[in-house]
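Appendix C: a fully annotated inverse folding record. The material below is reproduced so that readers can follow the format used throughout the book. The structure is listed first as tokens, followed by the designed sequence.
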């Protein structure tokens, strides 16, 4: 046996393996860019604690002086298509590095790191002051809470604008539906008269069943029809635990929160749905029930259901 040849072959194989490892390590490192942002721990893709990447480490941002213009810049940098609809709050749940404090954005910057601030790692706060944002990539029927992360005045999106909801005959079931639609806790959901809204009053006399998929799918007087003023704007408190009802849907193992294998909840367990006769109309109904824009592709989910386009749920 030619030992030199065997040694040469093993050496070449070893070098190729090392090159592959280095390539993937390098590729992983460079995917995180200086000043890149991410949102952590939120109920949806565009909600959560703000973290910024600096010197190879993710770190949080303090809420000291954090305001609307700062939130606008965060949502713009994250690619929200509706970054003027923003909400910020104290997340207070981070760990590790705290990178920024005293932010002073004008609102026109394209990246948070280009805003005025106290300097990297120069702060007088702890993780109890970590700030979070909610970027509303809004579509008709979407909800938001004004005043807190899980409690505040309830607003609904319709015809390209946010508006309030009257408290006339508002019920606990309505509050449960609103909290579930927002992806928040709902077993101890409650409602109250928040008032102090402005602009449109979109809904009045809302009447939901406990398992409705969204507040806009409940009975009401009609969009913009009401007999109340902003002193009667309703608010909700989303407390307790998370609930799952028969017929609820979820997407599993997708590349993003908006795609994946379709599963339905029945008899206290999650199960899949066969693709026999499943078509684009069924996919759109599923997306509508999941509160996503109905632009689904059948190939990304599988199911068997006989639906027509106006159905609100599978």
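Designed amino acids, in order:
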């Amino acid at each position: 046996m030619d030992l030199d040849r065997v040694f040469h072959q093993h050496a070449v194989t070893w070098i190729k393996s090392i090159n592959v490892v280095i390539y993937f390590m390098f590729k992983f490192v460079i995917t995180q860019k200086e000043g890149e942002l991410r949102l952590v721990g939120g109920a949806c893709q565009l909600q959560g604690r703000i973290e910024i990447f600096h010197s190879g480490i993710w770190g949080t941002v303090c809420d000291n002086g954090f305001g609307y213009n700062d939130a606008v810049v965060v949502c713009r940098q994250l690619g929200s298509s509706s970054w003027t609809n923003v909400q910020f709050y104290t997340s207070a749940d981070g760990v590790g590095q705290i990178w920024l404090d005293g932010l002073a954005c004008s609102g026109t910057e394209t990246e948070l790191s280009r805003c005025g601030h106290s300097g990297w790692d120069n702060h007088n706060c702890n993780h109890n002051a970590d700030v979070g944002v909610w970027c509303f990539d809004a579509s008709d029927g979407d909800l938001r809470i004004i005043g807190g992360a899980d409690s505040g005045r309830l607003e609904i999106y319709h015809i390209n604008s946010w508006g309030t909801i009257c408290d006339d005959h508002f019920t606990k079931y309505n509050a449960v539906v609103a909290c579930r639609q927002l992806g928040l806790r709902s077993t101890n959901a409650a409602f109250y008269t928040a008032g102090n809204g402005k602009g449109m009053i979109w809904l009045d006399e809302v009447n939901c069943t406990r398992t409705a998929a969204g507040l806009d799918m409940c009975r009401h007087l009609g969009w913009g029809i009401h007999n109340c003023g902003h002193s009667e704007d309703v608010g909700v408190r989303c407390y307790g635990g998370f609930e799952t009802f028969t017929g609820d849907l979820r997407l599993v193992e997708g590349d993003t929160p908006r795609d994946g294998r379709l599963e339905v909840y029945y008899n206290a367990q999650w199960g899949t749905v066969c693709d026999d006769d499943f078509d684009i109309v069924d996919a759109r109904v599923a997306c509508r029930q999941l509160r996503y824009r109905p632009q689904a592709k059948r190939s990304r989910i599988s199911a068997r259901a006989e639906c027509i386009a106006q159905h609100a749920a599978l």
